[in-house]
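ping. complex inputs:
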Amino acid sequence: MQLDAKIPSGPIAEKWDKHRFNLKLVNPANKRKYKIIVVGSGLAGGSAAATLGELGYNVDCFCFQDSPRRAHSIAAQGGINAAKNYQNDGDSVYRLFYDTVKGGDYRSREANVHRLAQVSVNIIDQCVAQGVPFAREYGGLLANRSFGGAQVSRTFYARGQTGQQLLLGAYSALSRQISVGQVNMHTRHEMLDIVVQDGRAAGIVTRNLITGEIRSHAADAVVLATGGYGNVFYLSTNAKGCNVTATYRAYKKGAGFANPCYTQIHPTCIPVKGDYQSKLTLMSESLRNDGRVWVPLNKGDKRPPDQIPEEERDYYLERKYPSFGNLVPRDVASRNAKLVCDDGRGVADSGYGVYLDFRDAINRLGEDAIRARYGNLFHMYQKITADNPYKTPMKIYPASHYTMGGLWVDYNLMSNLPGLHVIGEANFSDHGSNRLGASALMQGLADGYFVLPYTIGQYLAQHGYGNTDNTGEAFKDAENEAQARIDKLLSINGKRTPDSFHREMGKLVWDKCGMARNEAGLKEAIEKIPAIRAEFWENVAVVGGGEGINANLERAGRVADFLEFGELLCRDALERRESCGGHFREEHQTPEGEALRDDENFCHAAVWEYQGQNATPKRHQEEMTFENVKLTQRSYK
Amino acid sequence: MSGGLNLTLRVWRQNGPGDKGRIEEYQAKDINPNKSFLEMLDVVNEGLITSGQDPIEFDHDCREGICGMCSLVINGNPHGPERGTTTCQLHMRSFSDGDVITIEPFRAGAFPVLKDLMVDRSAFDRVTQAGGYVSIRTGAAPDAHATPVGKENADAAFDAATCIGCGACVAACKNASAMLFVGAKVTHLSLLPQGQPEREERARNMVKQMDEEGFGNCTNQYECEAACPKEISRNVISNMNGDFLLASLRK
Ligand SMILES: Cc1cc2nc3c(=O)[nH]c(=O)nc-3n(C[C@H](O)[C@H](O)[C@H](O)COP(=O)(O)OP(=O)(O)OC[C@H]3O[C@@H](n4cnc5c(N)ncnc54)[C@H](O)[C@@H]3O)c2cc1C
Ligand code: FES
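pong. complex structure:
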């Protein structure tokens, strides 16, 4: 497997400009002769499809929901970062770059991160021009807040619905391109495979979720923008439909999967209640700006929170990290919640919860001010739990939320499989081993609006146009394979639902490869997952047929991929014998219990190459070199 | 049966657009009141699947009230009995042991039933494509601070922009009017300076498409406002009518 990151030479601040100048351009008159497939209509896919359409390319865009506006980006709450320095508090492109590299625990590519910070400022301009109603101050200018671990206020937001407003912005741009015929939108279509022909990504295979029709589509280039795989844990803050199918299928066709073990466990979610739950709900971490996290000082203290006096509360984040307090990065906040709960001081029915308390903020600012900031979040919390957070502290606990791992891409956002580009959460991204809050929206839109539309030109110009014939053998083979898999699922007639398998493996992976991991646990998971998978293929219950609407069948297909992917996740975690960011190996910690990196041996991205069914995949490395940011032990004390 | 609810569900089953459809009864047993409504349906479906019967098809995705994918008319109310709540956020504590719950799809000529409780709401996408945007190319934007927007307008624009495009407004209206949906988008953009240049054209084109899709007229009953899970105000309809009128006068 060839892993050439194609990082431009020269000083970090000049790389992107220089690269843009050096990129081959596609002649404007020729653009309309190219066809590009974009799978996904979230922030990444929606913005890319719209922008490519504006440039004159013919775009076919796919999503599994009934409308592109429903991609899971819609659920993002807290905000989007940009180095605008509108608050005059010392922010800059370089500081955002620096914070992101440091926050990612030095496991990301400097050049990509710098570019991300550079284009962040354009994103805000673009969105405002589209009519995205960001929060504003009384003077009419944009408001900012500080967010998850940042000491400057660089986060732009639209109450607690930032993702919704940004996605509706991208959706409006996409709608405009659909109306002029530049983008052909295929809703309720699921991508089931990538087609590789003559060594390049030549198209995809989809299933029409209404008619059940399986067919292939050919194009000059394919862009995957299919989001993250957080649902591998079954319970997560992701939407029910989020899946690993598109990226995992690409992996099986030769694309490298980088750092699957980098998963982000978000510290502030509503704790699990009972075993029937279908998903977990995030409470935006912007709440940590005003809420104080605590647990009872004494084990087993079952008194209601308002009866626990101040001196018997442990505001453990403020105690351990005096300078960052409640705003430490996500991985640190999550791990500490687990520690106090493992210590027997957790709250909630299960003992796996901590308080997030707004009492002091309400006393200081008044209930109305808090309502203006977080009204919809408090409302959502009350709906789900029937508790009123204005009166009693919220109970929160970490949950799977975001995945930093993904398909490997070079500086041009192209995978090792020529023609296959990957953007947004689906790629291995710019966040190293831990993503800072409000940076995923930034990355998705950076990739889609401002990076891919340029860099894809390099591939297209070299490759030529007109590759739209889907009658070749590779296409037919891929279609037949997809059909055979569906037939197989329908023929098993077993006794267990797809969800029951997903729940079983999800719990295993959460226990052994969640917030803390160790060698014995990972080996155990790697041994057990194949058995779950084997039972799945003998005993899964899929009713109905392949023609027409069949959600049961859709789920079975997605679960089947998770059952393979879960093993890859654990294997990657096992081989990374260090702790970094969201990947915490219990064997590797400082005396204070912080993640202990091993820069000598693991300062690289691990990229997995598929070797065939039931064969151990091959691990490759892309070294990460740091010329601008000095590697240090992260400290938020 | 520790506090679980036992319910009778009367569910609309329909094989496809051409099928006549019928109500069928199911028992939901020992349902934990902390479950969400969709989690309750998941349980019923698991039972159906393991006994080899076709599960009830319904749309859903985020399950946190923001994607607009879930629908359902529950005991006659789009998204059920609670105000300002989507079906996915409705919890079973809103029901009592022994209740009979009737579950039907969002009904409207412009929203044909695809199967069971799933309907086709692509008409909303086409209405948006007719003009629900600001025509601005990527990369062409001026600095975000070039045009201040008064906080009051920005907040009001945001309120209108919170529409999740679920279609409850249409399902609630006896004329199947989409005025609340269209009004919300028109209002959002017409309150912002960025939306001004195309303001009248936008109202005209969106309303035209709305009519072509077969949505009905507004007869000022405002069932839409009551059903809207995001509690979008009926005022967006008068705003839209204002813009539309201007557009027609000038044409
Ligand atoms: C609850 C929540 C809150 C968040 N809050 C924030 C925040 O405040 N700030 C921040 O920066 N980030 C936040 N994030 C993270 C951020 O929202 C996501 O990382 C980002 O939106 C992902 O965008 P995307 O375009 O890559 O993928 P998505 O938005 O997930 O889009 C994926 C698209 O791919 C399509 N798709 C997927 N699989 C297939 C398939 N097999 N076939 C066809 N189509 C397919 C889907 O239909 C969809 O259109 C949050 C995430 C969650 C879950
Ligand atoms: S499932 Fe997303 S709003 Fe209900």
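Chain A has a mean pLDDT of 95.
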